[in-house]
Amino acid sequence: MADFVGAVDQGTTSTRFMIFDHSGNEVGKHQLEHEQILPQAGWVEHNPTEIWERTSSVIQTALNKNGLHASDLAALGITNQRETAVVWNRKTGRPYYNAIVWQDTRTDRIASALEREGKGDIIRQKAGLPPATYFSAGKVQWILENVDGVRAAAEAGDAIFGNTDSWLLWNLTGGVNGGVHITDVTNASRTMLMNLETLDWDDELIGFFNIPRQMLPEIRPSSDPNKYGETLVNGPLGGVVALTGDLGDQQAATVGQVCFNPGEAKNTYGTGNFMLLNTGTELVRSKAGLLSTMCYQFGDEAPVYALEGSIAVTGSAVQWLRDQLGIISGASEIENLARTVPDNGGVYFVPAFSGLFAPYWRSDARGAIVGLSRFNTNAHLARATLEAICYQSKDVTDAMEKDSGVKLDVLKVDGGVTANELAMQMQADILGVPVSKPVVAETTALGAAYAAGLAVGFWKNKEELVQNWNEDKRWEPQWNDEQRSKGYAGWQKAVSRTLDWVDVD
C-alpha cells in the first residue's frame, strides 16, 4: 500500500494541501491565500474559479516539493469552509456568481422572515439550526432571486449547488466530463435543508427556500469505502487517487483531535472559533443557543452527532487590525504588542462584524470597542482583541455545560491562533480549565486525512488514530475566581452595547 494520505483543506482565507504518514505526522504541505471580496457592508464573497485554481496549485506544489506522486497516496480527503455556497453550471463548469461566504449577512431579511412566518421552529427541529445568515440555504435562495437566468437553469437541471467541498469534488473528478455532484452528512447538515434524523434533504425545508431539489448534491458518509470517485490522470495530482473522505472543517478538526467519545470537545481557532462537543449517536437538541449538528459518519456505522458553538469573528479580528487599521503588519506581531501592557486597560472589543453567532444569534449586532479613555493605546486594543477570542469561547463553553450537563475538564485546541502563547494562557485564565494543544496543530487537514485513510484501510480503526494523538503544550489557569468573574462581567456588559445596532426587517 502507498505510504501516505493527502488532504485538501479549503479554508476561508486560504487553501492548503497536506500529506500525512501513518503516524499522523506532516510529511509536506503547501498553502496559498485567496482574495476576500467585499462588495459592500456585510457582503463577503470568494471567486470559486480562483479557489479551484489555488487547490490545483497547492496539490501540485506540495507533491513536487516532496518528490511524491499520485501513486504514493493511498487516498485523498477534503475538508472545507462550511456554509459557503457555490452555484455553477454543470455543462460549462462556470459559476453563476461568486461564492457567498458563511460570514455574509445579506440574507438577514430571509432569515428574519422565516422566524416571522413561524418556520424557525420547524427548521430548528428538523435541521438543528436557527434561521440565520450563516447557513447555505438562504444564500442559494438569494442567488436564485437576484442573478438572471439561474432559476430557469436550476429548473432545467443545469444550475447546481454545493458548499466548497462539492465544488472541489466535482472539479477533481472531471468537472464537465463526468464530475460527481456529492457532499457529506456534515456539510449537508449546515444548509438548513437536511433532516438530522433521516440524513436526507427534507422537502418541507427545501420548500421554505424555494430551491429546486435537483440543484442539491447526493449526501454520502464522511468516510466512504465505496469512494466518491477518483481524480483524473491529467488532473492536479497527475494520477488516479481514490477520493474517500469529506468533512466540513470543524467536524474534520474534531476527528483530527480524536474526540470520538461522547463528552469530548475541541475548539478550533481560525477565521472564526468553533467548539464541538461529541454527543455520540444521540441527537441532543440545544436549549442554550448552540447548534445540533452532525459530527461524522464513517461508512455504514451509525451517525455521530455534536453540539456546536460557532463564533463568526476571532482570528479575522486580528486580520482586521492588520489590514484595515494597520496596527500590526503581520498576525504574529499581535502577541508582542499585547504583552507590552499588563491588562486591557478597561478596553473591550466585541468583533460582531457579522452579527453575533452562538449563543446569541443576533444579526442586528455590530462590532464595538468600549471603555476607551485617553490612557489607552493600540497595545490595549491588541490585548482586547485576543481577549475577545477567549471570552467568546467562554460564552460557548458555558452554553455547552448547560445543554449537556458535562463540565469541561480540559479544552483541546487547534488552529492558527494556538501559536499565540499569550492568547492560549488567556483562554485558560478566562475558562478556569487547562488548555491542551496537540503536536499536530493542523487537525482540520489531519481529520480529512483520517476519514479518507480509514475508508481504504490505511488506518484499521479509530483506536489507531487515538494512539497518534500527542500533547505538545498545556496552559494552566493563573487567574483567581475574582479576576475571572470581574473580567467576564465586563465582557457581558460590552456585548450588550453591540445589540440592536442594525434594523432588520
UniProtKB/TrEMBL annotation:
Q: Which Pfam families match?
A: FGGY_C, FGGY_N
Residues reported in the UniProt entry to bind ATP: 12-14, 271, 315, 319, 416
> Which residues does sn-glycerol 3-phosphate bind?
12, 82-83, 134, 249
Which regions span the lipid bilayer?
Answer: none
According to its UniProt record, the EC number is 2.7.1.30
One BP annotation, GO:
glycerol catabolic process
> Which pathway?
Polyol metabolism; glycerol degradation via glycerol kinase pathway; sn-glycerol 3-phosphate from glycerol: step 1/1
Classification via SUPFAM superfamilies: Actin-like ATPase domain
The molecule here is called: Glycerol kinase
Origin organism of this chain? Kribbella antibiotica
